[in-house]
Amino acid sequence: MVITLRDDVTPDQRRAVEARLRAAGFQLVAAPDTAPVVLAAVGEGTMPSLADIRALPGVAAAAHIPEPFKLASRSFRQRSSIVTVGGVAFGGDDVVLMAGPCTIESEEQLVRTAQSVRAAGGRVMRGGAFKPRTSPYSFQGLGEEGLKLLRRVADAHGLLVISEIMDRSQIAMMAPYVDIFQVGARNMQNFSLLRDLGTVDRAVLVKRGLSATVDEWLMAAEYVMSGGNDRVLVCERGIRAYETYTRNTLDLNAVAVAKAISHLPVIVDPSHAAGVRDKVVPLARAAVAAGADGLLIEVHYDPERAICDGPQSLYPEQFTALAEQLRLIAAAVGRSL
Ligand code: PEP
Ligand code: MN
User: How remote is the CA of residue 329 from the centroid of ligand 1, in Å?
Assistant: First the structure.
């Protein structure tokens, strides 16, 4: 239920409304920076009738939240949220570029890639230290040593860091190195991980599972938010379909739908959607036109020699040219980049 309090609600009246809902088994969450105050009542209790809540002194309006996700819904927070990470705002006017290699390989790789990410206007450097590989015999990532390198190189280039976390046991070790925890498509329903990320002081990017519906994807975001962390970004990265020319199929429907039913910033990863370099460019352009708040793109200074996802990694020059085009597209849809 979403409850809007009156402008002139007294502290005692607000306490009484909250006490009534808590007694019914609900947790109360206030939307940030709204006047009048808007509260969501979430939990497993027995919902009092809307009429009962509307009749309480100090209540202006009460309504059910029809979506299964509550805190992530626009029914609760009508304005698009701006998630700020180290001075970079996701969900505002700027479309944010995040880029870098699939996996961290070496200092030289990171330095050469970071230079081009920064020069093209990127704000966040990506790089996996723990890789969810389909085969247990494929390279699994450099682990903490890789994160150290990524943090150092990103700092030296004025970039933030995003990196994938695979298990809740990695949270404490990774936290000092990352600004944004990435939850990968294969871990979208790792509920114990999502729950624990709800209690950390870091932004979390939740990728859509390979065959997850939009509701299931937003429910993963809800898990993080229900723990108290509302700095959540959701990322469309292509879903599994019957087409074989591309690795996955970028679902731009989901971008438009998620923007409409959720207030969270929506990011698009065209690299894993396409799986082939020359398709990443048009998909990135389309994503910005469709309203994406940011892009997560694989870039490698020498993709022929990349350990992981080389065929879909852009050459630095390609990334620079793409960023120029994205600037024009962003302007055409009232954004900047
Ligand atoms: C990645 O970002 O390198 C990755 C493994 O992505 P996804 O979880 O979308 O497959
Ligand atoms: Mn990859």
Answer: 26
**Residue whose tokens read 């949270």:** 171
312 Cα to the center of ligand 2, angstroms = 8
What does the pLDDT look like over 223-243, one tens digit per residue? 999 999 999 999 999 999 999
pLDDT of 261 above 90: yes
pLDDT tens-place string over residues 141-158: 999 999 999 999 999 999
- The architecture CATH gives domain 2-63: 2-Layer Sandwich (3.30)
Binding-site residues, ligand 1, Cβ < 6 A: 102, 128, 132, 184-186, 207, 237, 269, 272
CATH numeric code, 83-332:
3.20.20.70
- For 252-288, b/e burial (b = at least 16 CB within 10 A) is bebbebbbebbbbbbbbbbbbbbbebebbbebbbbbb
What pTM, to 2 d.p., does this model score?
0.97
* Residue 144 burial (CB count, 10 A): 15
